Amino acid sequence: MSNLQQSDFVSCLNTVFEVYPQGWKSVLRMELLEISEISSRQGGSFSLLFRGLNQSALEFGAHVVKHSVLGEFSLLIGPILPGMFSSVCYQAIFLPLKRDEQPSGHFTRPYEPVARCCHA
Fold first, then answer.
1. CA–CA gap between residue 36 and residue 49 (Å, rounded)
2. CA distance 100 to 120
3. Which of 45, 54, 80, 119 is the most buried (most CB within 10 A)?
4. What is the mean pLDDT of residues 80-98?
5. Ramachandran bin of 81, using left for φ above 0, alpha for ψ from -120 to 50, beta for the remaining angles
6. pLDDT digits over 1-31, tens only?
7. Model pLDDT, residue 84
8. How far is it, in rounded angstroms, from Cα 62 to Cα 45?
9. What is the C-alpha separation between 105 and 58, in angstroms, rounded?
10. 30-59, pLDDT tens digit by residue?
11. Is residue 42 part of a domain?
């Protein structure tokens, strides 16, 4: 699935996504806790906040993700605030490019999620 929009994830709040990290023999399960619009950028930019349901920590990168509603897709995701909560939290940020815009090749500071989500 490509061109995922913020509205595609709304029905998936509080549901489980399965992540298949390359080289792992097990699946990492994550619950989608929050969908946030990124107001500083126009064009459908948004952030997803997940809580890991396994003890293993996923490294930042592009990973295959499966969901019962959305199907299978690749998602660039990484841990945030590691070691500060009882669960590992993850964030994915969607920043659609304009037609004439090129990727910068570097990442800026991610959107700050509501930290309360990771306490559960």
1. 8
2. 42
3. 80
4. 76
5. left
6. 457 889 999 999 999 999 998 888 889 999 9
7. 59
8. 18
9. 22
10. 999 999 988 765 667 899 999 998 777 788
11. yes
Residue 41 domain-assigned (yes or no) = yes
- Which residue is it, tokens 């906040």? 49
Question: Does some domain include residue 64?
Answer: yes
Query: Contact at 8 Å (CB) between 80 and 91?
Result: yes
The answer to whether the CB of 63 falls within 8 A of the CB of 74 is yes
Tokens for 114, please give them.
């509501």
Q: Is the pLDDT of residue 115 over 60?
A: no
Domain-embedded: residue 90: yes
Bridge partners of residue 17, in order along the sequence: 30
Alpha-carbon distance values, 120 to 27, 38, 46, 68, 88 (Å)? 21, 24, 23, 23, 10
Range of the domain at 76: 6-119
Q: What is the helix, strand, coil percentage profile of the chain, to 5? A: 10, 40, 55
Q: Supply the pTM of this predicted model.
A: 0.76
